[in-house]
Amino acid sequence: MKPTLQTVADRVGVSRSTVSNAYSRPDQLSPELREKILDAARELGYSGPNPTARSLRSGRAGAIGVLFTTALSIAFTDPYAVQFLRGLAEVAEDNRTGLLLVPLRDDDEGALEAVRNAAVDGFVVYCVPGWYKAMEAAWARGIPVVNSDHFGSLFVGIDEIASTRAAGEHLMRLGHRRIAIVADYISPDRRTGEVSVPSVEGLGSYVSRERLTGYRDAFAAAGLPWSDVITISAAGNSREHGAAAAAHALDRSPRPTAVVATTDLLALGVLDALAARDLRPGRDVSVIGFDDIPDAAQAHMTTVRQPALERGRIAGRLLLDPPDDPADRRVVLPTELVVRASTGPAPAGSN
């Protein structure tokens, strides 16, 4: 017969609650009694109280759920995601709390069940479009939800529009007028290729919508109509997808003099596509990314820097120890346009 809490209690001659305290509240027992209970448990082959049942009794799961829509492996390979999760993990560790990664590849019943059944004390939303039904399921749980990519009562993020507006103004000052934008989540089927985006307000993805809005506003202020801008959908946020999307811009005639991307990974793919065509970044075609991951500096790529590590830390603090003042529960972090060699004046006669 499998040993239970009662089996250990009977062996030591104490109550069930005392045995339970040896695992969950050791400060309530003398070191000698606790060691006696643990020794008896080891002899009997008892591994401890069921963690799920214990969390139900205590009202605390001891874990933060992280929601994102990419493959699970991206959490360990995407440089920005790695930094964000590192910051979140630091705060979780300080609070003796774990992380539960909840990938939502498809907005289907499986995703809904994953959110509904996750044994967590709250969710941090890393990258989930607002239209996902899984988001409704998260809110319906009645536990804290910290948004990092669209507004909510608990929010940590950046001014996306101002960030890309600064990048767009940089291109306008350099004289560029033939421009392509590479972005994911601007096509419902996430295909690779040129798409029509007559109104950025109609985009469902908060990040894509805000970043394209910033570029649109900068271009409009310089007299460049949004209808003249080429918008290209990438099938995912990776270097390979960025290169495939860039081909739809670089193989056009006339070719754009600048290609901007909504992430550094996509922009690095644009640089790969330039190299494959013997085109020089910053001279033949200017390129701008977003995030400032380490590879961006190594590639001398102009980009928008945002604080991934600090963003993760603040997300954790907001979830585990939210401020009393509601105004302090919405944190907007600074960004910086980092100009490097991948941007330069528009080629003579290009416009």
Which features does this protein show?
5-stranded mixed β-sheet; LacI/GalR-like_sensor; 3 domains; alpha/beta; Rossmann fold; single chain; 351 residues; 14 helices; 13 strands; elongated; DNA-binding transcription factor activity; Lambda_DNA-bd_dom_sf; 434 Repressor (Amino-terminal Domain)
Q: What would you say this structure looks like, in words?
A:
There is one protein chain. The longest helix has 16 residues, at 79-94. The protein is elongated. It folds into three domains: 5-49, lambda repressor-like DNA-binding domains (434 Repressor (Amino-terminal Domain), Orthogonal Bundle), CATH 1.10.260; 63-158, Response regulator (Rossmann fold, 3-Layer(aba) Sandwich), CATH 3.40.50; 160-306 and 334-338, Response regulator (Rossmann fold, 3-Layer(aba) Sandwich), CATH 3.40.50.2300. 42% of the residues lie in helices and 16% in strands. The chain is α/β, with parallel strands linked by helices and 351 residues long.
